[in-house]
Every structure is written in C-alpha cells, then in structure tokens.
Amino acid sequence: MSTQLTQEEPPHKAEQKPDPLVPANSVQVPGLAGARLAKTFRALRHRNYRLFWTGQLVSLTGTWMQSVAQGWLVYLLTKSALSLGVVSFAQFLPVLLFTLLGGVAADRFDRQRLVIFTQSASLVQAAILATLTLTGVIHVWHIIALAFLLGTINALDTPARQSLIHELVSKEDLMNAIALNSTAFNSTRIVGPAIAGTLLGALSAWVHSQFAIETDTATRIAVGVCFALNALSYLGVIVGLLLMERHPHRKNNTHESVWRSLWAGLSYARRDSRVLALLSLMGVSSVFGFSYMTVLPLYAGEILRVGPQGYGLLMAAAGLGALSGALLLASLGNYQRKGFLLTIGNFVFPVMLLVFAQSKIFALSLIALVGFGWGLITQNALTNTLLQTIVPGELRGRILSLYTLMFMGMLPFGSLQIGALAEKLGAPVALTIGATICLGFGLFVWWRWPHVRRLP
C-alpha cells in the first residue's frame, strides 16, 4: 500500500542547498532577452553584482574622462612628450611600490569596506584636481603629486575590487562576471573619452566665444569640468557598495606576518610556470604596448593634427575594439581553448600597434586602434580568468595583486621609456620599437612555454 501511495505522489526534485555566495533575492535574466543575451549577461542576475557593475559603469566613465582631460592639460601646459611620460610615471609608480601590500590587505580585510574607502579617497583626489584647475592655479607639479596620490589609492583598490567579484556571484558565474567587468571597463573607455573630447572641444569653444577669454584658458576650464564630473561619478560605485547585502566577513590568518604572506604569493607564482608565463606576458605588454597612451596626445596634436576631439576619438577607438573583445569573451561562456585565444590576442595587438605607429591617416589610425584594443583585452581578460582558475582561493588577492603589478605597476617604466624615446626619436619610432618587442616576446612565449596556448 505504501508503494502505491508513493507512485501516486507527484515526483519531487532533489532539494538544492543555496549557494552561500548568491544573495537570496538573486533574479534570473528574462527569457525574452534571448538565450544568447541571457548567457552573455547571466552574472547580472545577482543583485550585489548588479549594484557593483552599475556603479562601475558610472565611476569608470568619469575615470576615463579624467584620464583624457589630464593628458590634454599636461600637453597644454608643457607641449612636452617627456612631461606626459613623467605624469604617467608618477601615477603608476605607487602601483609598483604598494600593490603587493594591497593584495595582502585584500586577503586579510573586508573587501567591500576596503573598496568603499578607496573609492571615497579617489573622489577627494578628483575634487582637489578640479578645484586647482578651475581656479587657474594648477601647475604641472600639482598634477604629478595628485597623480602619485591616485596611484597609491589604486594600489589598494585594484586587488580588493577584483577579488570582491568572487564574493558577489556564484561559482559558475565567476568567469562571466570577470568578462562583464572588462565589458564595463571598455564600454566606458568609449563613452568617457568621447564625452571628454566633446567637452574639451565644444565647451572650451563656447566659453571662448561667450566670455572673450584666451583659448588655452577656456580649454583649462573645460578640463576642470571633466575633473569635477569624475569626482561626482565616484558616488555611483560608493552608493552601490553601501546598498549591497552584507555577508559575514571570513577572516584569513592575520597572525602571519605581512612579509611571510607576500613571500607565499611570490613563491607560488615563481613555481607555477603557467602563472609565471601569464604574468610575464602582462609585464612586457604593459611596458612596451599599453604605454602607447602616453604619447597619444602628441599623435593627436602634432602627427594626425585632429585636436582634442580627435584625441577623444582615438581613445574611444581602442575602447571599441576592447569592448567587442570583452563581449565576445562573455558570450563564449566556459570556453575550453582559452590559452589559444589568448595567444591570438597576444599577436594581434602588436601588429595593429605597428600599423598605428606608421599611419598618418586618421581613419586608418582609428581602425588600427580598434584591432589593438581587441587584441589587448583578449589577452588581458583571459590572463585574469586563467589566473583565477589556476590559483587557490586563499592566494587569490596576492596573485591578482601580481597581475595588477604587471599590468599597472610596469606602466611607469613604459611611460618613461616611450616619453624619452619619443622626445629624441619621435613618437612613431618609439611606438614601432615597443610593438616589435611585444611581438618578439610573444614568439618567445610560444617557443618557451608552449603549454600556455593549450590551457583550457
């Protein structure tokens, strides 16, 4: 009789335990958006990640606006490629000096609170820069000092912010979340420079015509507005972080000395040839590839002669290529030939940089930067993904701080070398040398660490 009752009862699915990493009120992406779209943006079903990602869109737009405006302001004040290199050096030197300590902090303390603190500090930095610029007292040494301050903040912020993503989504959505984070970074890389370029061109022209002041002064006012808007944009990510549902912070071993913690991360990276190869690719690409941004104002002003609007479009073109690459990666899901796709990106971006270096045609330069952006983000995002897949969870903050060190910490050397070479040999020769080195190192990795291109 009991058997009959069991057969008559409707079947029940096995009870599933909730994932502690997923907020209770996570929502599913609507089916009306289509299966492909739902797959591409599936990490957004988690409320905490949606808040984080939306805040990033607002904040990163302002960050890119400030990056464009700051480069143009330095060029306006000095007309010097070396000065552009010095400012970039000052901004990224603290990442070289302090980012490993930032990784230790990310593994020890509450990452959510740590990111709230760093984003608030960035807001203050942007507000000071805006005030000095709008009041007309700005000098290059002010920009250098404030760039160093922002770099110090970023050294703490970046490892914590990247490690925080792991706490906002379920395990199966982690790779998609990383790709969507790259999508946010690169979509704002299009929008931010475009807004900044428009403000630098249109707003400065309006101020010049309405108030009959010098063109350089009008441009400085437009630059100050970009800085002020960036300060306001930080509120987006701060509010998003404050609205998140809190989870108990799991403390790691804080009794271990800072130096022992640092050494544990470094030793792991040195022993694992996969990690060593991936980090080496990032370092070389940063020094000799991504440093192209240092001389981009020089290209816009003196080689292509397209002014601040064209400068914004050049920045946006690289962002468009990177955005397309990030969206492609997000749509691939758990793609099983990540190493091979990473290798393609590693070869594409230096070839496109070589084309850009020799181009004197604005349209060709835009096309080359689109290809450059696609190749670079394909390499960088897959490096981030593979590192998070390879390393154990207790070392995640420290290994990601090494990733940050290679990506951002090496930029001071890249900025200095390309600024000095451009000053003596010209920007096209400087870029050609850097692109050739990137391509050569890619071939070396192909030969020395063939297992990298076979990573799943």
TrEMBL record:
Q: What is the lineage of its organism?
A: Bacteria, Candidatus Bipolaricaulota, environmental samples
Q: Which residues form a coiled coil?
A: none
Keyword annotations for this protein, in alphabetical order, are: Cell membrane, Membrane, Transmembrane, Transmembrane helix, Transport
Q: Name one GO molecular function term.
A: transmembrane transporter activity
State the residue spans of region: Disordered.
1-23
Regarding the membrane, this protein is recorded as: Multi-pass membrane protein
Where do the Major facilitator superfamily (MFS) profile domain residues begin and end? 48-453
Q: Where are the transmembrane segments?
A: 51-75, 81-102, 138-156, 221-243, 275-299, 311-332, 339-357, 363-387, 399-419, 425-447
Any one Gene Ontology cellular component term annotated for this protein? plasma membrane
Composition-biased stretches (Basic and acidic residues): 9-18
> What's the main place this protein lives?
membrane
- Check the record and name the SUPFAM superfamilies matching this protein: MFS general substrate transporter (SSF103473)
**PANTHER family associated with the record:** INTEGRAL MEMBRANE EFFLUX PROTEIN-RELATED, STAPHYLOFERRIN A TRANSPORTER
Give the protein name, as stated in the record: MFS transporter
UniProt subcellular location: Cell membrane
